[in-house]
């Protein structure tokens, strides 16, 4: 091996050793540094400052900090190990039961938005658009809110009158999901809330399910019933259209 080849070999070894050392040094200093994951510092802290990356990730230093590229593996049931109250509901949201919180939440997201992505609004009233419900539509079919009349896209209908559409699909002040449903789970079927926040008021929903429909008597309108067996002649649920 000539001098030029040896020089090239030693240079390569030196560079590899340097990058390995800096990666391990960064790991010892913490996962969030100016070289790694610096963007996390631009957000409101996701979890308490004392929480280590290893609280959720398996062996982050050994398998990731050296520049391997692959994200470290996750602890099984990592979310509910701390947020165990979400499992206490009688009717939990499906992702909760499957330890799939990441389908809705970004664990490294901004706490100012409750770790939720841009395609979700936590407002009470929303001017309807597909984009406003992009997160929900990643699992739920758009048909739920697309058609004023349907015989298949939702069980929340009076005959064929689509009551999800009636409440939500409005160009101005459509009702958001949170005005009737609990997001993580509830004590009533269909994740219906017992009461929801309406300004400073905890508004009762008073939902009752029946074999072929149900009824509600919330603070926003009088008692109304719906029945999926109703005929077209029966019209809309008693009480008329929601304003």
Give a short overview.
By secondary structure, the protein is an alpha+beta fold.
Which terms summarize this structure?
about 240 residues; alpha+beta; 3-stranded antiparallel beta sheet; two-stranded antiparallel ribbon
Structural classification: alpha+beta
Which blocks of ≥5 consecutive residues have pLDDT under 50? 15-29, 239-243
Count of helix runs: 6
Shape: elongated
Helix content: 10-25%
What's the main sheet like?
Answer: 3 strands, antiparallel
What separation lies between the terminal Cα atoms?
85 Å
Overall pLDDT metric = 79
Radius of gyration, Cα only, in angstroms?
26 Å
The string of secondary-structure elements, in order, is: HHEHEHHEEHEEEEEEE
How is the topology of this model organized?
Layout: H1 3-29, H2 60-63, E1 91-92, H3 94-97, E2 125-126, H4 134-137, H5 143-146, E3 157-158, E4 161-162, H6 163-168, E5 174-175, E6 185-186, E7 195-198, E8 201-204, E9 208-210, E10 213-216, E11 224-227
Antiparallel strand pairs: 1-6, 2-5, 3-4, 7-8, 9-10, 10-11
